[in-house]
Amino acid sequence: MDTSSGRAEKELAVLRLIYDVSLRLGEEMRDASGSRLDPHQILALTLINRHAGLTQSDLADHLDRSAVHVSRLVDELESEGLVERRAHRFDRRSKDLHPTEQGAGMYSRMRDRALHLAAEIFKETPDERLDALSRRAVRISERLRLALSSASAPPGL
Question: In 7, 30, 97, 98, which residue has its Cα 20 to 30 A from 54's Cα atom?
């Protein structure tokens, strides 16, 4: 095995680990929520709870999804009684998104579970290593976003 294929296997192993962590965390959040929300719905509900009053357009930007996708996502959360659309204060074409009491309660359960898991996982990690890990995770996320956006571009562009 040459060094480039050895490097590729290591990189792939890291991506598999990240994927495994993501799946396990998603399952835990679903269990904590007491519902069958999918990962996009969980993330949307989290953002709406953390930034009550954001618009669907803001949510689409945060999720890096189309307006149509986010509209359907909000429709689903609204039909479950987890979020509500309210008239925007200044722009009558826009709707602000707010958690309902049920949505806030669900978010609180998921957040409590996530805080417990984070404390357990990182209990022996010094602050400076946690800071470095956070910076690395942000960098991986940014590079993934770039790789995916360039992969969808037509060849030669």
Answer: 30
Distance CA 49, CA 60 (A): 15
pTM value is 0.82
Backbone angles phi, psi at 148, to 5 degrees: -70, -35
Rounded CA gap, 120 and 102, in Å? 27
| Residue 19 dihedral angles phi and psi, to the nearest 5° | -60, -45
**Paired tokens of 5:** 């294929």
Token reading at 55: 């618009």
CA distance 22 to 20: 5
pLDDT along the chain (157 residues), means of 10: 82 94 91 89 95 93 91 96 90 88 96 95 96 95 88 56
Q: Comparing C-alpha atoms, which of 80, 78, 86, 82 is closest to residue 99?
A: 82
Q: List the beta bridge partners of residue 96.
A: 55, 86
Contact between 123 and 115 (Cβ < 8 Å):
no
SS (H, E, C) 75-100: HHHHHCCCEEEEECCCCCCCEEEEEC
Nearest residue to 121 via CA among 129, 74, 53, 55: 129
